[in-house]
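> forwarded from #structure-qc
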């Protein structure tokens, strides 16, 4: 079968991820789009561990680990250093989880976006602090179980609208992606590499231990997120939004929710409310 995805691999099989890890699948496709002239800045998150213990690394590219709160600031410094040396070709990527983006790293992210720093910031959004034991983050959906929202009803707060926050900074490029749509993801990273200024990609990244899913279903779960309309694949460039995957016949959100043990406490009323919210967004034609 023909594919637009490059064959060359820049991630080895020696990584330390759990089976079915969406963040690892996402990294593999991102690397195929970014190419060899890339430097990664990774704050405290699952990928701090997944790359492997120094001096070894599962990534065939330079990696700099940064403090939890400063991925965007560190990436900005790396880019400035490369530019000072006359290197204007190497792409600098901050690769962070939702804890280091929605919450702890939000200030540095906002500053870099406001200054239009020439970096790519990636949030692999697995919707909780997974590396430290599945605690609620600003990216956790309402009704989802975590170790810090252990009641039957799960998280009482809705997921923070990070897309709107980032887009309010008028980035040079913004996109969403998920590993079930590998060609879409690879294309977006390849495109982001060619653009100057602040670029941001948010990846919905299934986490089997945290989402309480079967590892073999990671691609299925992320595909259902799109097919039900819960997660929209789109990109924004020069202020114009383009929907990459219109969903004419959306599947019921229950098909996505019921694959995940973290939503087992959802009542029928709560599921109906989620469905109504998704329907409203699509029926009104919102991005």
């Amino acid at each position: 079968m023909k594919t637009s995805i490059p064959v060359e691999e820049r991630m080895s099989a020696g990584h330390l991820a759990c089976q079915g890890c969406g963040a690892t699948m996402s990294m593999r496709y991102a690397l195929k789009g970014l190419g060899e002239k890339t430097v990664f800045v990774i704050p405290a998150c699952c990928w701090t561990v997944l790359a492997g213990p120094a001096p070894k690394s599962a990534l065939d590219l330079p990696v700099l680990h940064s403090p939890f709160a400063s991925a965007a600031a560190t990436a900005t410094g790396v880019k400035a250093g490369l530019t000072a040396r006359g290197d204007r070709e190497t792409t600098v990527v901050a690769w962070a989880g939702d804890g280091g983006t929605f919450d702890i790293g939000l200030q540095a992210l906002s500053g870099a976006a406001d200054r239009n720093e020439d970096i790519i910031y990636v949030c692999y959004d697995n919707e909780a602090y997974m590396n430290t034991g599945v605690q609620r983050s600003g990216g956790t959906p309402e009704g989802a179980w975590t170790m810090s929202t252990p009641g039957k009803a799960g998280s009482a707060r809705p997921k923070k609208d990070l897309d709107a926050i980032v887009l309010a900074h008028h980035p040079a490029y913004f996109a969403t992606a998920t590993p079930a749509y590998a060609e879409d993801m690879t294309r977006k990273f390849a495109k982001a590499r060619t653009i100057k200024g602040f670029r941001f990609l948010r990846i919905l990244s299934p986490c089997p231990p945290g989402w309480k899913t079967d590892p073999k279903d990671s691609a299925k779960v992320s595909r259902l997120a799109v097919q039900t309309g819960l997660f929209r694949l789109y990109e924004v460039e020069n202020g114009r939004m383009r929907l990459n995957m219109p969903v004419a016949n959306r599947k019921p959100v229950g098909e996505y929710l019921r694959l995940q043990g973290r939503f087992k406490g959802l009542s029928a009323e709560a599921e109906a409310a989620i469905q109504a919210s998704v329907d409203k967004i699509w029926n009104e034609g919102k991005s």
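QC bot note: Residues 145 and 151 are 7 Å apart (CA to CA). The two ends are 33 Å apart (CA to CA).
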